[in-house]
Prior knowledge:
By secondary structure, the protein is an alpha/beta fold. The protein has helices spanning 2-13, 38-44, 56-64, 79-84, 163-173, 184-198, 208-216, 227-235, 267-277, 282-290, 297-301, 307-312, 328-342; strands at 20-28, 48-53, 71-72, 88-89, 113-114, 117-118, 121-133, 157-160, 201-205, 222-226, 240-243, 250-260, 293-294, 320-322. The chain has 2 domains: 20-125 and 253-313, Periplasmic binding protein-like II (D-Maltodextrin-Binding Protein, domain 2, 3-Layer(aba) Sandwich), CATH 3.40.190; 128-251 and 324-343, D-Maltodextrin-Binding Protein, domain 2 (3-Layer(aba) Sandwich).
Amino acid sequence: MRLLTTTILAAAAVPAFAADPELTVLDWAGFEVPAIFQAYVDQHGQSPTFSFFGDDDEAFQKVASGFRADVAHPCSQMVGKYRDAGLIEPWDTARIPNFDKIDERFLDSDVFRDDQGVWFIPTDWGATAIAYNTETVSEEDVATLQVFTNPAFQGRVSLPDSADDVWALAYLATGVSDWDDVTDEQFQAAADWLREAHMNVAAYWSDPSEQAQLMASGLVDVAWSWNDGVVYLQEDNYPVGFQREAEEGSSTFFCGFVNLSNGPGSEDKVYDFINAWLEPSAGKALLDAIGYGHSSTEAMATIADEPAVAEGLAELDVPVLAQTPNDPQQRQRQLAEFERIKAGF
């Protein structure tokens, strides 16, 4: 398909940087774009060594099973799990000059910052909403999240293989916009809705490039998508819309870096990397490459007038379920139930 060809040609056009053996980053695929951490490349002449994962639980299991990296890039819901397992150590914010430029709303949790220190450096945030083929799906269809259970789209839907994102969708679709203190009845209603949606799913996507390929191939017309899947499709001139204002709402998430205990590389380079990420110039690079917002108020100020911000990151007048840390037992319950649903139970 042309999307794959475009991706290959784009990759070939980017200068190759030898991987730095003194810094290993466990990251989502797509975040290895050098412009996002350009100050690190300028300082050391090469990008870090990257190891990739498809979802947060996979990354955690990889580290818990003994994989050694210096930093990892989880989303907010997973930070407590890394802490409880003793896999991370606090950051020394005295070594991070732009720490005070991070928007306080991304640090508003005892999970991230307490009397023991700062455990999480938020860096990026985005939305999860409806991506759809504007030539085959009407605006009326995507005015509601019930498009995912609409029989007209049986076998034409893709959902993320991510328990957090699919439960955010299911809660919103059943009238819940805050996943703290979910009742048993609300959980069951969301689970029932997910089972109904599962009947329409052609495939669960594991990363945004896979989601983009599913849509570009013509197999899928509607997907529950992050910003980056939409960016990839737009770059390939695919007729894609991003509906964040369905009547039941949409979701937001934010992610960042944790400092893994006993990392094998250079601690100095760990701080060089996070400082590069927090440079104001990283905001434009992040938006262009992936469509995400930046945690730094200075970085966001540099892109405030960009059309991509208005399209994919602007504040909304509909319910928004923020994927902030929720109860670990509830999250485990959601994860287990999602696995049952995918297995057909």
